[in-house]
Specification:
The protein has 979 residues and is an alpha+beta fold. The protein has 32 helices and 34 strands. The strands form 8 sheets. Strands 16, 17, 18, 19, 20, 21 and 22 form a 7-stranded mixed β-sheet that branches. α2 (37-44) packs across α11 and α28 runs antiparallel to α29 (789-824).
């Protein structure tokens, strides 16, 4: 017996040692930086250790060699780009586990001085690239979209030295958006970049992968490693400062600054959660899209086996460790709400409701015993769970505050959030229309915290129970009560609130998960797997049971009456159906006779419709065509022949005639776009020129759609072509007029600028003059005896002090000129700037004039948001509005003249208001103030272009809106911009 016990102890020790010594390796993609922060944090915070791994992080090496090491098993896990699927197609089988960056950080840098302004300008230029980026799908596709290939550029092997670009040894430099732009900004180097994302070709990056062999042999290990990795990334992105400090201390082999790491972290976090995607998600649809692009590039050797390529672990199977945990644990303690039917309640110390049914499902699936920890209120249940007195909340929704104490499993059930109001209230079609009302909600509900985050202006009063909330709605204390759908319906029935109704629904829903105590990772893994076993078909009977209780309790007699009524109604309907069918048969006979007549009429109408269509095409100058891609047969409408100036009677190859008509400079681009959209199953749209026999040029717009067979083969393409020559010529004429108008407006503003400069120069020039007079009079009056050493020294000090003052005044003059000249330069590109700061900056240019005119300017700037704007043009609008108000206040001699400037956020808009107390504008001309050359001060040299230019800048540069309205004391201009 003694020997058996010793043997068991030895085996247990060996198993424990094996568990703790599960060594794996991860090949990093590049040198140490925040790009790998999630892996660092998973290791340093013990997430890998908790999952049973000792991880060796391997430094960067040749991408091909790194990939081979993973496939051969020399390295367990690797990080790669979208080109991984190309290797898989070549036969080197891998499994993709997680895409850390949902959007690619790859960019190509160019100096502003390089004259490289589009991807087409890459031709013949030198590009510094890494070998794996040369094979990258997104960059290759970006080149392909403008008919370029790798043969059209000069590839320079990457030396990772940014000076190669700065010193112009290369024209273009492959980089990461999170790294090199920061370094160039620090050096003051002006640059721009080209991004596959901006060009419309955006794919995953930093994909975690392993060999298909390892994934098949160790699925549980792969799942645990992936989860631990994502946990590390979640921690890194939610504790950026801590993560950066750790990298600085232990992983800063590149000797980067803290500011550089913080910049990198911010950029990468945006890429990781791009388009609100779940961290690490990787979908078959996106992988298929990458594959399709590679297929067009003709680099794929075989189709992809998606089931094997995308790793999918059985999330419902418990591991040996988890089964051992349950055997040792014996039972799981849970807390719940004691009075929240139909979801949760406690009667006679027994858990009832939908949550009870869900735990019964979990018990049957896993064999786990769940034991109730009694509580009086939901707040008490939450408190006991926080204090580790219970292990689990069976029905809970995640919020940021709750995540401090609980881990939430994947959602197993969700239900809409609704609003209960009095019956006389209208139905709420859009919840944002009632955000000014006051609502009630039961305290402790997670949706309260989530709704307040989504709708900051939503006014919610927390109540103790749903009854208290509904009573408040009845009495008019609250406009409505917010709760989940089933709970609301149950309460209305149970409490007999016949004068209330469900009037509206939020877009958001209450998402229900198991909430597990934060310190029990094994239990979390078990409950997360159980969450995946709760299928809709298993859950529905539980929900139906409580819906049935809700609507039948206490109504049995009515139930039988309703059945009897239903049977009688059914018989009546059957008799009516027989009568109806006989009647319709007689009508059908009559319809047959009419059918012959209608066919003849239809033929006549079809002929007339064809003529009308031809007439409509002639008026719109819109032709149509159809190409049978199987037979290569092309047919044109009458107007198409007319647009191309070709006779329909001529027997010739229509496609060749079409190509010959296309302007030689546009021909190659047209054929490329046509082929590209066909290969990618996209709608074709293109604007190009036709060169006619007499040398004239027509501008046309072509559109086309393609029909595909069941096996994906293109069989038919149909499209239109429209002659837009007159429209194009009118647009060009309008552009010339707009340029002329803008030029006039600029000239007018130059006069105003000169006036402002003269005003601000007045005081410094006066001070310089008085200082010069002071020095001159001191010399002429001989106030100092220059023959005496002491007096001579005093004189030199006196002169030196005054010269310093003159220098300061000159600097002031220079700064004034610089401020105005910087303002007057047109902004070439929009910048992400704080809107409040730009408003204040514009005001500083006219602040002295306002003060001299005794005009008080009050600011209430609360937007505090950075948006993309053209700074100088936007400042021009602000100055125009401020000076307009100033002139009106002075002209009308207003007592206590004031201008109010206000900014705030409204829904998805940024609002900026300029209001004065100058008495307003005549109502009859309000709609005309933004028209060109309209002015109320033409007799005073007004150009009538100021407000027109404001409108152009806001509408066209910023895709916003500017409006005017009279107020009680004056006029108010309102600018609306997209957030």
């Amino acid at each position: 017996m003694k020997h058996i016990i010793l043997l068991l102890i030895l085996l247990t020790s060996l198993l424990g040692a094996r568990e703790s010594l599960n060594k794996v390796s991860l090949q990093l993609l590049w040198l140490d930086q925040f790009q790998f922060a999630g892996y660092y944090m998973a290791k340093e915070k013990g997430f890998y250790k908790e999952a049973g791994f000792k991880v060796d992080l391997k430094k960067v090496k040749d991408p091909k060699e790194a990939f081979s090491d993973v496939v051969s098993g020399k390295t367990t896990f690797g990080i790669g780009r979208s080109s991984l699927i190309k290797f898989d197609s070549s036969g080197e089988k891998i499994s993709l586990l997680s895409a850390i960056f949902q959007s690619s950080p790859d960019i190509i840098l160019a100096l502003d001085s390089s004259n490289i302004n589009s991807v087409q300008d890459f031709q013949g230029r030198s590009v510094m690239q890494t070998e794996d980026l040369i094979q990258n799908a997104s960059l290759n596709t970006m080149l392909q979209s403008v008919k370029l290939s790798l043969k059209d550029i000069q590839i320079i092997p990457h030396n990772y030295n940014l000076n190669s670009l700065i010193e112009k040894r290369v024209d273009l430099y492959s980089a990461y958006i999170s790294n090199e732009p920061f370094l160039l900004k620090q050096k003051g180097v002006k640059f721009h970049y080209f991004s596959p994302k901006i060009e419309g070709f955006d794919f995953y990056s930093d994909i975690l992968y392993t060999s298909q062999k390892y994934a098949l042999e160790h699925p549980l290990q792969v799942e645990k490693f992936t989860r631990a990795t994502l946990k590390g990334w979640e921690y890194a992105f939610s504790h950026i400062e801590e993560s950066v400090n750790l990298i600085l201390e232990k992983y800063n082999t590149q000797h980067k600054s803290k500011e550089a790491f913080l910049y990198e972290a911010k950029e990468l976090k945006n890429l990781a959660y791009y388009n609100n995607n779940k961290l690490g998600s990787i979908t078959q649809e996106n992988i298929q899209r990458i594959y399709d692009i590679y297929k067009v590039l003709r680099v794929m050797k075989a189709p992809l086996d998606m089931k094997k390529l995308l790793f999918d672990y059985d999330r419902t199977k418990l591991s040996f460790e988890e089964m051992h945990y349950l055997k040792k644990k014996h039972y799981i303690r849970y807390c719940t709400q004691s009075d929240a039917l139909p979801y949760s309640a406690v009667e006679d110390n027994k858990f009832i409701g939908i949550g009870s049914g869900i735990l019964e499902l979990a018990e049957k699936t896993s064999g786990i015993e769940f034991r109730l920890v009694p509580t009086q209120t939901w707040q008490e249940a939450l408190l006991k769970a926080k204090n580790r007195e219970c292990d689990l909340l069976p029905m809970a929704s995640a919020t940021p505050s709750r995540r401090e104490y609980f881990n939430f499993t994947d959602v197993y059930y969700d239900e809409p959030l609704v609003v209960i109001t009095r019956k006389e209230e209208n139905y709420i079609l859009n919840i944002t229309t009632v955000l000014d009302k006051t609502f009630s909600a039961v305290a402790g509900n997670a949706f309260i915290e989530n709704l307040k985050r989504i709708y900051p202006s939503l006014k919610i009063t927390e109540v103790k129970s749903i009854k208290e909330g509904l009573d408040g709605v009845e009495s008019g204390k609250y406009f409505g009560h917010i709760d989940v759908m089933m709970s609301s319906a149950y309460a209305l029935q149970k409490l007999s609130k016949i004068n209330l109704k469900i009037s509206g629904q939020f877009e958001e829903s209450a998402k229900v998960s198991f909430a597990v105590r934060k310190d029990d990772a094994v239990l979390f893994g078990i409950m997360n797997k159980l969450a995946h076993t709760i299928k809709k078909e298993n859950l529905q009977p539980i929900l139906n049971r409580w819906i049935s209780i809700n609507y039948t309790k206490g109504t049995v007699k009515w139930y039988y009456k309703e059945i009897a009524f239903g049977v009688v109604l059914f018989l009546i309907l059957m008799f009516y159906r027989e009568y109806f069918l006989k009647k319709k048969n007689l009508e059908l006979e009559g319809l047959k006779e009419r059918l012959v007549i209608l066919n003849e009429q239809l033929e006549n109408k079809a002929f007339e419709a064809t003529k009308e269509l031809e007439k409509a095409q002639e008026i719109a100058k819109l032709g149509s065509w159809v190409m049978n891609l199987t037979t290569k047969e092309l047919t044109w409408s009458k107007e198409t022949y007319k647009i191309f100036d070709i006779s329909p009677e001529r027997e010739e190859n229509l496609y060749e005639s079409f190509i010959q008509r296309v302007h030689p400079d546009d021909r190659e681009d047209l054929e490329h776009k046509y082929a590209f959209t066909l290969a990618n199953k996209q709608t074709y749209h293109n604007k190009y020129r036709l060169l006619m026999d007499d040398g004239s040029i027509k501008y046309v717009v072509g559109n086309a759609v393609t029909k595909f067979s069941a096996n994906g083969e293109a069989i038919l393409r149909a499209g239109t072509i429209q002659d837009v020559t007159q429209t194009v010529l009118k647009e060009e004429e309008m552009k010339k007029k707009d340029i002329f108008i803008m030029h006039q407006a600029r000239l007018a503003q130059m006069g105003e600028m000169l006036s402002m400069i003269a005003h601000q120069w007045k005081q410094p020039l006066s001070a310089i003059s008085s200082t010069q007079i002071s020095i001159k009079s001191t010399i002429e009056l001989e106030k100092y005896n220059l023959e005496e050493k002491k007096e001579r020294e005093s004189f030199l000090i006196y002169v030196d002090e005054r010269l310093d003052k003159i220098a300061l005044y000159v600097q002031n003059l220079s700064k004034t000129i610089k401020d105005f000249s910087d303002f007057y330069k047109p902004t070439k590109e929009s910048e992400l700037l704080n809107i409040d700061a730009v408003v204040k900056k514009a005001y500083e240019l006219v602040s002295d004039m306002m003060q001299d005119s005794a005009i008080e300017v009050e600011f209430e700037l609360e937007a505090n948001l950075s948006i993309a704007i053209y700074e100088n043009e936007f400042m021009q609008v602000i100055l125009n509005l401020l000076t307009n108000s100033k002139e009106q206040l002075i002209e009308k001699k207003i007592n206590n003249p004031k201008i109010y400037v206000k900014s705030y956020l409204k829904s998805d808009k940024v609002m900026i208001e300029f209001e004065d107390n100058a008495g307003g504008v005549e109502e009859g001309i309000l709609e005309s103030v933004f028209d060109p050359y309209f002015s109320t001060k033409l007799e005073k040299n007004g150009t009538g272009l100021g407000l027109y230019m404001c409108k152009m800048i806001i509408n066209e540069y910023h895709r916003g809106n500017i409006s005017i309205q009279n107020t009680e004391d004056g006029v108010k201009f309102t600018i609306e911009l997209e957030r």
